[in-house]
């Protein structure tokens, strides 16, 4: 089936990214994996390549485009190579939409030029110990000082992707108590400078997968945040978060599809080269049938992911549609990657093989950005159930 979602510009970008990955990432990826993170200097290379500025207005050093299709190419090419670009995905997919949507002109002048170059890497801090998906239940507070010049931030966050290397973090905190009829009221967003006194990075979390993506615990003890770093209006943070959830969930869906597609590539290559009982594993009927079934599932996931991408770029992707795409693509990826690992036999369990790393990396897709169970609840609600 011929895809129509990408044009010549996207394919030219694909060639550039593929060459970059082969030259700059593949040779050192084992070192990143062992260290548990990509090096900070790598993000400057992505900045030089123009990856961070695609959707940033030209006046701030970007390309001035308004599309997620180049991000989609990145998902496909990193998965194809069995690598991960660390916390850079959060920088672009999660943080940038909030800056573009909420920052004033003065804030954009301060934030975006350094965002584009990689001089300031951004992360998003929502999740807290003990609250999980219940964002409205957060305990972190930001209280306005008596002279009105700054907020005083206290609390803790966990599972923050990109949290180790981040130079600024969009922190969600309570500026007011929840209302009796609206517990979501009272949350605000702040662009917090990680060099601020009282800001600290706790453990770099030891994860099952996504080993090269730094994930951290953060703590705030009387951190002074200038009022100039409030994003948007006070107490409306929960609604801002909701506005960007469809794009986040599309990203997880598309990334999962790309991983499943890559898994078939790894498996097909392996079974063609591996010989058992005197002939390649690819010659056995079971191998052919398993890979054929996987290909059919990935074809379907590609169609769903592409449709969601087109809707997102058109500004029409609804919360329910994003939830449906995430649920479907992540469940397909789970099944496909498991079957492709099985076809590797014992070698599929070895981290030196990309399928093993892919298996571990993929597992979180059904958890973060809202669990599969939460996705089902959203879909059911849209059905009037």
Automatic annotation (TrEMBL):
Positions of the Acyl-CoA dehydrogenase/oxidase C-terminal domain: 235-383
Cofactor: FAD
InterPro entries: Acyl-CoA_DH_CS (IPR006089), Acyl-CoA_Oxase/DH_mid-dom (IPR006091), Acyl-CoA_Oxase/DH_mid-dom_sf (IPR046373), AcylCo_DH-like_C (IPR036250), AcylCo_DH/oxidase_C (IPR009075), AcylCoA_DH/ox_N (IPR013786), AcylCoA_DH/ox_N_sf (IPR037069), AcylCoA_DH/oxidase_NM_dom_sf (IPR009100)
Domain Acyl-CoA dehydrogenase/oxidase N-terminal span(s) in chain numbering: 7-119
Positions of the Acyl-CoA oxidase/dehydrogenase middle domain: 123-223
Keywords in alphabetical order: FAD, Flavoprotein, Oxidoreductase
Transmembrane segments: none
Family indicated by similarity: Belongs to the acyl-CoA dehydrogenase family.
Protein name: Acyl-CoA dehydrogenase
Lineage of the organism: Bacteria, Bacillati, Actinomycetota, Actinomycetes, Kitasatosporales
């Amino acid at each position: 089936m011929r895809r129509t979602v990408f044009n010549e510009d996207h394919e030219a970008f694909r060639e550039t990214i593929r060459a970059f990955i082969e030259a700059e990432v593949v040779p050192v990826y084992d070192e990143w994996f062992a260290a548990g993170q990509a090096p900070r200097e790598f993000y400057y290379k992505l900045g030089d390549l123009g990856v961070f500025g695609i959707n940033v207005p030209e006046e701030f050093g970007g390309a001035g485009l308004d599309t997620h299709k180049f991000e989609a190419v990145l998902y496909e090419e990193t998965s194809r190579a069995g690598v991960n670009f660390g916390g850079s995905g959060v920088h672009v997919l999660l943080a940038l939409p909030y800056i573009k949507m909420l920052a004033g002109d003065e804030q954009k002048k301060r934030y975006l030029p350094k965002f584009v170059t990689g001089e300031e890497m951004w992360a998003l801090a929502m999740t807290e110990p003990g609250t999980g998906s219940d964002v409205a239940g957060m305990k972190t507070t930001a209280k306005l000082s008596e002279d009105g010049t700054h907020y005083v931030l206290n609390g803790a966050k966990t599972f923050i992707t990109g949290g180790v290397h981040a130079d600024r973090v969009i922190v969600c905190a309570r500026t007011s108590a929840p209302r009796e009829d609206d517990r979501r009221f009272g949350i605000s967003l702040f662009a917090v400078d990680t060099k601020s006194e009282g800001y600290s990075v706790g453990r770099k979390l030891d994860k099952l997968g996504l080993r090269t993506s730094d994930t951290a615990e953060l703590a705030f003890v009387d951190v002074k945040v200038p009022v100039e770093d409030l994003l948007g209006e006070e107490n409306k943070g929960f609604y801002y978060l909701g506005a960007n959830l469809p794009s986040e969930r599309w990203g997880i869906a598309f990334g999962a599809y790309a991983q499943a597609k890559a898994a078939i590539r790894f498996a097909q290559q392996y079974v063609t080269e591996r010989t058992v009982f005197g002939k390649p594993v690819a010659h056995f009927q079971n191998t052919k049938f398993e890979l054929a079934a996987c290909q059919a599932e990935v074809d379907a996931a590609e169609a769903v992911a592409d449709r969601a991408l087109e809707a997102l770029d058109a500004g029409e992707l609804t919360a329910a549609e994003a939830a449906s795409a995430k649920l479907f693509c992540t469940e397909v990826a789970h099944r496909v990657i498991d079957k492709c690992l099985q076809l590797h036999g014992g070698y599929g369990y070895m981290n030196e093989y990309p399928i093993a790393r892919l298996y571990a990396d993929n597992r979180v897709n059904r958890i973060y950005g809202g669990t599969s169970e939460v996705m089902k609840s959203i879909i059911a609600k849209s059905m009037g159930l």
